[in-house]
Amino acid sequence: MKAQLDTEAVTGRGPEVGIGGVLVLGGTSEARELAAGLVERDVPVVSSLAGRVSRPRLPAGEVRIGGFGGPDGLSAWLVEREIAAVVDATHPFAQRISASAASACARAGVPLLRLERPGWSERPEDRWHWVDALDHAAEMIPRLGRRVFLTTGRQGLEAFAHVDEAWFLIRCVDPPEGPLLARHELLLDRGPYTLAGERELIDRHEIEVLVTKDSGGEHTVAKLDAARERGLPVIVVRRPERLAGVQTVASVERALAWVADALPRGAAAASPSGAGVPR
Ligand code: NAP
Questions:
Q1: 3-state DSSP call for residue 94?
Q2: Nearest 5°: phi and psi at 66?
Q3: 94 lines ligand 1 (CB under 6 A)
Q4: 159 and 181 in contact (C-beta within 8 Å)?
Q5: What is the rounded CA–CA span in Å between residue 42 and residue 18?
Q6: pLDDT digits (tens, 9 = 90+) for 75-119
């Protein structure tokens, strides 16, 4: 219930999405684009955000904020709101909500699509080192450099706490909770970032190694281009395994087409503008 109250306080948006709407699990630019596309087509949509960021960029349409209380809570919510389809457009590293969505949708009998942007690809002059987890990234740092640009987000920073020999430029959207690394500077910022801006940061802080998750997408890719230009090593944390059995698409267009098929007949075509959803 708290989540619903928070939502109203944050968004002050129109009437709740009723029978046959789409739930978009968000927190990414693709989720916002999808919500905008559905609103444009008069498809009823409610977007859900975890509530981690203090001033989130809000998607078009109805927005709710806060967890559902695990798969049980989400499944009950889907039934209560008579949701017809769910698109999990959360970040590739947000594992728990994706697992929760798969379980809840199976239980509630609601079709689920995963919308996941492609990962980044290494180019000829890149010096990337792939690792499976933040701990492994931390282990690798002393071999690669002492001045580290750490862009893995504010969660999981404790993995780097024992890397005493390094200094960290930590960039994240909101301040991390809990103790910070012994030697660091905190930079609160959010993308999209420019190549010129990333070059300037790398040069000013005399960065020797960049650490990133394989988040993919355009908004934060400039740091990789800047690292390539400067010949810097980059530690790239691999994405977690995809959930088996969940249909996945890589573009908002494909997700819009899936929604058109998944919705009860007539729902997507109800647009007075006749825009409909592409197939
Ligand atoms: P997570 O570990 O998968 O989720 C933890 C819990 O937060 C979930 O069990 C769920 O609570 C709640 N939650 C997460 N996403 C939600 C959503 N869209 N709507 C409602 N509840 C949500 O996720 P995380 O890694 O903490 O990421 C949180 C959010 O930030 C995600 O929505 C993700 O898209 C966004 N994000 C994450 C990253 C990243 O690197 N992890 C980067 C950029 C953006 P209940 O179990 O109570 O439902």
A1: coil
A2: 120, 160
A3: yes
A4: no
A5: 13
A6: 999 999 999 999 999 999 999 999 999 999 999 999 999 999 999
Structure tokens at 262: 């998944």
Report the candidate in 132, 96, 92 with the shortest Cα–Cα distance to residue 114.
Answer: 92
Find out whether 36 and 62 touch, Cβ atoms under 8 Å.
no
Distance 276 CA to ligand 1 centre (A): 30
Residue 17 pLDDT > 80, yes or no?
A: no
Q: Output the CA 50–ligand 1 centroid distance in Å.
A: 5
252-262 vs 29-40: helix crossing angle, rounded to 10: 50
Q: Return the residue whose CA atom lies nearest to atom 46 of ligand 1.
A: 70
Instruction: Report the separation in Å between the CA atom of 229 and the middle of ligand 1, taken as the mean of its atom positions.
Output: 33
**For tokens 């103790």, what's the residue?**
179
Tokens 């959207």 found at: 173
SS3 of residue 168 by DSSP: strand
